[in-house]
Amino acid sequence: MAVILTTNTTIGINVSASGDTYITREGFYVAADTDAFDFVDFDNLEYFIEGDVFAGDDGIVASTGANNNDISIGFGASVQAGGDGIQFFGNTVSDSGHDFVNNGSIVGLSGEGVDVRASFSSLINYGSITGFGFGVFYSGTGNSVRNHGTVSSASTGIGLSGSNGEIRNFGGVIAESNGLDVSGGDYIIHNAGNISVGSIGIDAGSGSGNILNAGNILASIGVRMSAPTDSIEQNGRLTNSGEIHADSTGIDIVSVDSVDVFRVVNSGLVSVAAPDGDALSGGGSVEILVNTGTLIGDVTLNGGDDVYFGTNGRVIGVVDGGAGDDILRGGDEDNDLDGGTGDDMLRGGGGDDELRGSAGHDELRGDAGDDLVSGGGGHDLMFGGLGDDDLKGFGGDDTLNGGQGDDLLSGGSGADVFQFYRNAGEDRIWDFQNGTDKIDMTAFSVFFSDINAAMTSRWGNAIIDLDALGGSGTIIVNGAAGALDASDFIL
């Protein structure tokens, strides 16, 4: 195991044995018209670069039989190549991968900055890496790329193909296409730096994995998570405490399988520039979104039985459950929730909310604030909660309960039930259909004779004084003066 100090050469260096250490000192260079430094298929080698490596083709290379070889590029040192800066192959099933540390500069003018096709290999970059294709590309199992410097590319910044890999970015990634690109399952992506790209900031597909963004992403699509069409459950998770700024879509989930589950936890900022853009766009999978931060743009969950919790969060746009039986719960801000198709459960939370059940048999609760609650088609259960609410049943046999506050109730078509509690406020039923709709006053424990005694007429309307029945408030039934009898009530 010899230590070899390289001298200036223009014909390159081919390693001739395993286990040796090579050093290109500061002020010295290794150059060649083709590949400059070739590990061939030898193992357990170290190459320390304090000077420069110049190549017409690839800078530093190794063939498939090579294993457990390390490269360290020092401050001010460089690898400049016409093809790949570093191109390594190796045994894809061995745990004796290649480990690189770069404090200098790596340039692949027409190829990749770093291209490694081996497993259990790693790269730590504190310097700069530039590629025409990928800035950095690793293919194999269990590979790791950690960037504290700068990676730039005319195509994709950092790519990882294979399972159980990880990318951790604490520096900068600049690319014309994607920033961080992973294909393979059980991945880990951690961005605490800056990603500025022309297409997708983080593109993670083909399996389960975890994404953590605590940095900044500027892209056309901020983050994309996808899964193969294979009926096998895949689980993806994105935790965002940083900022994602996108042109069209902040978070894009691409999946057609209902068995797939994607979880998104946002305590940061996701914004889209396009007026019709989505802060989050879901697929046919189950999406679970917990938002305590800010989403600027619509949340379109599409297919699957989706869940949205907006506790202490804010959405400047519409949360649309799409197809499936969804649970949508707003926070303390003003929320705009649409259940879409399916039997959905919507809760407005605090703020002045707008809730739409759309198709299906839905349960809608406005909670606090002055809410607009619309059932749509289906047999809906609607509660206004606190505040002065406006409830509209539309189609189906609906149950409408304004709760406290001065509420407006409209059942629409179908046999509707207007339900009242003791502290109802000043409520009005706009479209009571005598003989079809019902007024539910079971909470008062009274007889119809009591109601009849508390009922008066004015301007063609029936008026029920709830104070006379042990409650507080008034029910005005539009156009029903003299038309209500015991058959119109549920007692």
Task: Give a brief description.
This protein has 491 residues and is an all-beta fold. The protein has a domain at 427-490.
Tell me what the structure shows.
The protein is built from 1 helix and 56 strands. With 491 residues, the protein is mainly beta. The protein has a domain of 64 residues. The strands form 2 sheets. It has a 34-stranded mixed sheet that branches. It has a 22-stranded parallel sheet, with no helix packed on it. One of its GO terms (molecular function) is calcium ion binding. Keywords: Secreted.
Work out the helicity level: under 10%
Structural class: mainly beta
Query: What is the count of DSSP helices, taking H or I runs of 4+ residues?
Result: 1
Q: Summarize the main sheet.
A: 34 strands, mixed
The percent range for strand residues is over 45%
The low-pLDDT segments are none
CA gyration radius, whole angstroms: 32 Å
The backbone outline, from C-alpha atoms, is rod-shaped
Counting DSSP E segments of at least 2 residues, the number of strands comes to: 56
Mean pLDDT value: 95
Main attributes?
single chain, 491 residues, 34-stranded mixed β-sheet, 22-stranded parallel β-sheet
List the helices and strands and how they pair.
Elements: E1 3-5, E2 13-14, E3 21-24, E4 29-32, E5 37-38, E6 46-49, E7 52-55, E8 60-62, E9 70-73, E10 78-81, E11 86-89, E12 99-102, E13 105-108, E14 114-117, E15 122-125, E16 128-131, E17 134-139, E18 144-147, E19 150-153, E20 156-161, E21 166-169, E22 172-175, E23 180-183, E24 187-191, E25 194-197, E26 200-205, E27 209-213, E28 216-226, E29 235-240, E30 243-254, E31 261-266, E32 269-272, E33 278-281, E34 286-291, E35 294-296, E36 298-300, E37 307-309, E38 314-316, E39 319-320, E40 327-329, E41 336-338, E42 345-347, E43 354-356, E44 363-365, E45 372-374, E46 381-383, E47 390-392, E48 399-401, E49 408-410, E50 417-419, E51 423-429, E52 438-440, H1 448-453, E53 455-458, E54 461-465, E55 472-477, E56 489-490
Parallel strand pairs: 1-3, 2-5, 3-6, 4-7, 5-8, 6-9, 7-10, 8-11, 9-12, 10-13, 11-14, 12-15, 13-16, 14-17, 15-18, 16-19, 17-20, 18-21, 19-22, 20-23, 21-24, 22-25, 23-26, 24-27, 25-28, 26-28, 27-29, 28-30, 29-31, 30-32, 30-33, 31-34, 32-35, 33-36, 34-37, 35-38, 36-39, 37-40, 39-41, 40-42, ...
Antiparallel strand pairs: 53-54, 54-55
